[in-house]
Amino acid sequence: KAGVTQTPRYLIKTRGQQVTLSCSPISGHRSVSWYQQTPGQGLQFLFEYFSETQRNKGNFPGRFSGRQFSNSRSEMNVSTLELGDSALYLCASSDLYNTEAFFGQGTRLTVV
Amino acid sequence: QQPVQSPQAVILREGEDAVINCSSSKALYSVHWYRQKHGEAPVFLMILLKGGEQKGHEKISASFNEKKQQSSLYLTASQLSYSGTYFCGTGIQGAQKLVFGQGTRLTINP
Fold first, then answer.
1. Which residue in chain B is spatially nearest to A107 when comparing CA positions?
2. Nearest-by-Cβ selection for A90 from B41, B101, B102
3. Which residues of chain A make contact with B99, given a CB cutoff of 8 A?
4. Does B95 contact A98 at a Cβ distance shorter than 8 Å?
5. Which tens digits make up the pLDDT trace of B27-74?
6. Most exposed: A36, B5, B21, B43, by fewest CB within 10 Å?
7. Which residues contact A83 (CB under 8 A, 6 or more apart)?
8. What does the DSSP 8-state code read for residue B81?
9. What is the percentage of chain A residues whose pLDDT exceeds 90?
10. Around A57, how many Cα atoms within 13 Å sit in the side-chain half-sphere?
C-alpha cells in the first residue's frame, strides 16, 4: 500500500508570493490533516478535511487555506507569504476509525 | 492547550531504560505517541484511550492516567534505532486533529 505522498518536497519562495502544496493520502483514507512544523513552535495543527469538507481548523490566519478533492487528494495554499511561514508542512491521512495518522514526508518551504 | 512533555531531551547508552512524560491541563480522551527521526516523517507508535488502557509495541509501552491527565512512554532496553524525537499528541476526535507536545529528543549512544 502506497504511503502518504506530498509534493513538492522542497520549495523556495519570495515574501509576498503564494504557494500551493499537494498531499495524496493513503488509498481509502478520507481524512487529511495538515500540520506546520517549526523548531520554535513544534507541530501545529492547521486544518482537517473529510469528504471534501473542512471539518476542523486550527489557529492560523486566513492566508492559510486548503481544499480536498473527490479522490481525497488535498491541497494547501498560503497566500502573501511571510518569512515566518518557513517551515516543514506535513499532511497526515487517517481511516474511518481515526486511530492512527499516517504522515507524509513533508514539504520544506523556505520564504526569502 | 498544548500538552507538556518532559524531559525535553535525554541521552542514554544502549540498553538503558527511559521514560517520557506527557501532561495536559485539559481532560484527555486519547493520547497518541509518534517518533520522528531527523529528516523523516513522524511514525505512529501507539494510541492510548480513556480508561487507563496500557498498550505495548515491541519494547516500548505506555500508560495513560486519566486522573492525572498524564501519559508516560516507557522505552525498555533501548536500541540505537530508538533515537529520534518523540511526540505525544492529544485529541478528542481521534487522529483527525491532534495537539502535539514540544517533543522529547532521545539520543542513544553505543
1. B41
2. B41
3. 45
4. yes
5. 778 899 999 999 899 999 988 887 666 565 678 888 888 888 899 999
6. B43
7. A15, A111, A112
8. G
9. 87
10. 11
Q: Can you say whether the dihedral through the CA atoms of B79, B81, B83, B89 is positive or negative?
A: negative
Check CB contact of A68 with chain B, cutoff 8 Å. no
Contact status of B103 with chain A (Cβ, < 8 Å):
yes
Tell me the backbone φ, ψ of residue A19, rounded to 5 degrees: -145, 150
SS3 state of residue A83: helix
What's the grid cell of residue A97?
476509525
- Quote the radius of gyration of chain B (alpha carbons, Å): 13
Give me the residue from B2, B44, B94 closest to A98, CB to CB. B94
**Residue B55: what pLDDT?**
60
By CB atoms closer than 10 A (0-12, 13-18, 19+), residue A99 is: middle
pLDDT tens for each residue of A1-25: 689 999 999 999 999 999 999 999 9
Q: Is the pLDDT of residue B21 over 90?
A: yes
Compute the average pLDDT of residues A86-90: 97
Q: Which of B48, B98, B102 to mutate against chain A (most A CBs within 10 Å)?
A: B98
Q: How many angstroms separate the CA of residue B64 from the nearest CA in chain A?
A: 16
For β-strands B104-109 and B9-13, DSSP reports them as parallel
Inter-chain residue contact A101 with B32, CB threshold 8 Å: yes
